[in-house]
Design a protein that fits this description.
single chain, 215 residues, alpha/beta, 6-stranded parallel sheet, binds 6-O-phosphono-beta-D-glucopyranose, binds magnesium ion
């Protein structure tokens, strides 16, 4: 097997927080009377909270101060965390759980590379607090995806070079970040058909075949 490590995006790969992100942004957008739907929500995948807010505000005819923007982001995050608080280990799919266990048995280093500042909270809610060898998240980066910083940090934390790792991503911004960092990328979900990715997954367990793991 050519890889020694796997770096997973979190939202949309390990767990489905997409709907909660959407509902929280939608509530804010409705309050501010800004048009926002699921299609526009796809543009927010992988990008930081403040960059997401800027994308939403592009459809507003008003301009807002930095303080107002910070308050909007906080308002969204409060709603989002309330929804996250309802998550439990039952929200980890059998497919993800089984795949992680197979990869663990292969002695691969497993890491998270997520733009989310809520990463630790989400991992705790779904019962994976202690599972990963390293967690690089929105709290330890200065550049969000499509910049490769979060994946480079994750690789560094597990002492591997980008060429020794594969990144699993559901966002086009994340695929771009992985490739820019020199990683092979396995794309899933919204980004599945992204041509910059080397592997195209219908579900996470497809990784086992792609990586030629015999289990
Ligand atoms: C990414 C999501 O994982 O995290 C984005 O795909 C989100 O949609 C980003 O904006 C930041 O999340 P958080 O939890 O820090 O607001
Ligand atoms: Mg994602």
């Amino acid at each position: 097997m050519q890889y020694k490590g796997i770096i997973f995006d979190l939202d949309g790969v390990i767990c489905s927080t997409d709907e909660s992100h959407y509902l929280a942004w939608k509530a804010l957008a409705d309050r501010l009377q800004i048009p926002f739907d699921r299609e526009r929500n796809n543009l927010l995948r992988g990008v930081s909270r403040m960059a997401s807010l800027e994308i939403i505000l592009e459809k507003s005819d008003k301009t807002y101060s930095d303080d107002e923007k910070a308050a909007f982001a906080e308002e969204k995050n409060t709603m989002y965390r309330e929804l996250l608080g309802r998550m439990s280990p039952a929200d980890l799919s059998d497919d993800v759980r089984n795949t992680l266990n197979v990869l663990r048995e292969e002695r691969l280093k497993l890491a998270i590379g997520s733009s989310s500042k809520n990463t630790r909270f989400i991992l705790e809610r779904i019962g994976l607090s202690d599972f990963f060898d390293a967690v690089a998240d929105g709290n330890c980066i200065t550049h969000s995806k499509p910049h490769p910083e979060v994946f480079l940090k994750a690789a560094d934390m597990i002492s591997l070079a980008p060429g020794e790792c594969v990144v699993v991503e559901d966002a086009h911004a994340g695929v771009e970040a992985a490739v820019a960092g020199g990683f092979d990328c396995a794309a899933i979900g919204d980004a599945k058909d992204d041509e910059r990715a080397l592997y195209h997954l219908t579900c996470i367990s497809d990784l086992i075949g792609c990586l030629k793991i015999n289990n």
